[in-house]
Structures are given as C-alpha cells and as structure tokens.
Design brief:
Strand order of the largest sheet: 6-7-8-3-9-10
Radius of gyration: 24 Å
Order of helices and strands: EEEHEEEHHHEHEHEEHHEEEEEEEEEEE
Largest sheet: 6 strands, mixed
Strand content: 35-45%
Distance between the termini: 38 Å
Helix content: 10-25%
C-alpha cells in the first residue's frame, strides 16, 4: 500500500490548455478517493500523471515519501483500470490475469498462486478457462480489476471503469469494487463524472472544475457543507436549486427578494460569504430539492409557482416549477410518494429558513 501526495501539480499541454492548476491533494494509505467533475475538468489527466503516463508541468508527486516525478510507470508499481476492459480476446481469463506477471518474469508457481488468489477474491474461479467474449460486462470488469490487483500494486487507478455498463449492472459492480477495496485495503483513486458513484463509493470525494480543486471531503460533509456554488450545484441528484436574489441583512438573518417574493435565511452555517464584511446586494441562493415543502397558500418563506413538468418515480415525485413573477427562476422539488399536478397549475412551495444556502459568487 502507499500514500499519494500531489504538491502544486499543474499540467499545461503544448497547445496552451491548462488541464490542472496547482493541485494539492493527499490520498491516505488504504483510502478510496473518488475524483469527480464535469467532462474536461482534468480528472483523467490527474490519474495519468500519478500513473506516469503524463508528466506534470509543475509541482511534485510523492508515493509514500519518494519523489517520483522522474520515475517511469513500471517503477511506480501503479495499476490502472480503464473505461475499456482492455482484455486480450485471444487469451482466457486465466491467461489475462497472468499476463502482467509473465511480463515481469515471475516464477510459474508464483504466477499460479497469485492468479488463484485473485480469482478467489473476485469469484472468478469458475470463469478461468473462458474467453472474454464468453463473459458478461460485469464479469469482464472483474477480470480487468483482477489483472490490476494480481500485481499487488501500491496504488490502483480506475478511470471511469463503469461507464460502459448499463444502469443496473453499474450498481452491482460498484458494490463489488467497494467490497474489493475493503478486503484488500488497496489505495485507490477512482475517477468518474457520475456524482452518484462518487457519493456511494468514496471514503472522500475530490471535486474538480476546469483544472482546479474545489473541495475534498467525506461524501456526507460534501453534501451538507459545499464549499462554493459549483460544488453545491454539482453534488446531488437532482442538483441544488441555485438562483440569484437581491439581499440585505436584518436582525433575523438575511432577507432575499425574488421577484414579488421574500425569503428569510437564518442559518449562518450554510452561508459561504467569506471575505465580505457586509451582506453583498446580490447573492446566489441554494435550496436542495428535498428541503422544499408543499404549502397550502401564502405564508412565511413561501413562493407561488407554476407546475412546469412532473416526473413520477414511484417512491417520490419530482416537481419542476417556475416562480411566478420571476419565470426565469425554476425550482425542482423532491416530494414523497406519487403526487399529481396539472401543467401550469399554481403551487405554493415553502423553503425553510434554516435550509437556505448563500454563496457570494455568481450562479455557476
């Protein structure tokens, strides 16, 4: 196992594109860290720098206490699992697992022992004599994982390994990866654009945007206490409702004006206004869909809206509503059970004052 540390790591490509901008990040020994962010934010570039497939333009990379910037990939003892399974179609599962060990010229008995150990760990024993074409997508992904683990790597790097699987299989394989990591205690860095994967898999989650590290935290803390408006809007499904509002301070908290409506925010723990001595006149306001409540009519912290779209998911209903008097502001409300709303019907929504987030930066 190993600890990974990046200090001020930047990557600029020859065309001038800045893929990573002064990344400081530590991955603890035995930790599963998920790196998440939109397409093109630098996730895969970060992974390739750790693997030695790309060189950092600036900064330092350490494995344990060793500075490894100049080490070739084979010296780093890092295994990588890609989007594509990258299995050799003409080799059996057994030979696919053994291939990296043969390349290292290990003794035949040791190769056999390692292959059997990994096959047992991943429940591949009954599949050892099959070819990749005879396997399901989930089985192929397990073989790809096994080929990485059979090397006893210090660090395993996974680059969107579930993106080619259907939704149901992703849930199954995701649970398998979490179980494998728990049993092996391998240090893992897992890259994905899917924030559901990030929240369910990671011991901690690192959020990237345009090459910059936005926040690194445990999933629950990331969800409850996003560092900025980008993290708030990216983490969560459906994402947090974010919109601009005029604001002014009061004895009760912060008064927010959205068209003809008024809201009060009174939970400073949810305010991200660092660097501002006074309340800025315009703020980005955030409300999680599950914190919105249906109201029977006007009242404290309620707004009138029009039902624009409804999604019935069985256990819950997603209501998409446009705020009356400010139709460009649209909220998504997550409501329990199956609830019906006629299109363009008026609805009243309440935003609890203690559940409103405030951000100084513009709406992302």
């Amino acid at each position: 196992m190993a600890r990974v540390r990046l200090e001020g790591v930047s990557k600029r490509f020859p065309d001038g594109t800045l893929a990573l901008d002064r990344i400081d990040l530590a991955v603890e020994d035995g930790e599963l860290l998920v790196v998440v962010g939109p397409s093109g934010c630098g996730k895969s570039t970060l992974l390739r720098i750790v693997a030695g497939l790309e060189e950092a333009t600036e900064g330092k990379l350490f494995l344990d206490q060793e500075l490894v910037n100049d080490w070739p990939p084979q010296r780093r003892n890092v295994a990588m699992v890609f989007q594509e399974y990258a299995l050799y179609p003409f080799l059996t599962v057994r030979d696919n697992l053994a291939f990296p060990l043969r390349m290292r010229r290990l003794r035949r008995t040791e190769i056999q022992e390692r292959v059997q150990r990994v096959a047992k760990l991943l429940e591949l024993e009954a599949l050892l004599d099959r070819y990749p074409r005879e396997l399901s997508g989930g089985q192929r992904q397990r073989v790809a994982m096994g080929r990485a683990l059979v090397r006893d790597p210090s660090v395993s790097l996974l680059d969107e390994p579930l993106s080619n699987l259907d939704a149901k299989l992703r849930v199954t394989v995701r649970a398998e990866i979490a179980s494998i990591q728990e049993r092996t205690r391998t240090t893992m860095i897992y890259v994905t654009h899917d924030q559901t994967e990030a929240m369910t898999l990671g011991h901690r989650v690192a959020v990237l945007d345009r090459g910059r590290l936005q926040q690194v935290e445990r999933p629950a803390e990331l969800y409850e206490n996003p560092a900025n408006a980008f993290v708030a809007g990216f983490i969560g499904n459906p994402p947090m409702n974010l919109f601009a509002a005029h604001a002014e301070g009061s004895a009760e908290g912060v008064c927010l004006r959205i068209g003809p409506h008024r809201l009060l925010a009174n939970a400073p723990r949810h305010w991200r206004l660092a660097g501002h001595e006074d309340i800025p006149p315009t703020l980005t306001v955030g409300i999680r869909p599950e914190h919105l409540e249906l109201a029977s009519g006007p009242g404290a912290n309620t707004v009138e809206a029009l039902a624009v779209h409804v999604e019935h998911l069985g256990h819950e209903t997603l209501l998409y509503a446009a705020i009356r008097g400010e139709l460009s502001v649209r909220w998504v409300a997550r409501l329990p059970g199956m609830q019906n709303f006629a299109k363009d019907a008026p609805v009243w929504l309440r935003a609890p004052a203690a559940r409103i987030y405030l951000f100084a930066e513009p709406v992302p």
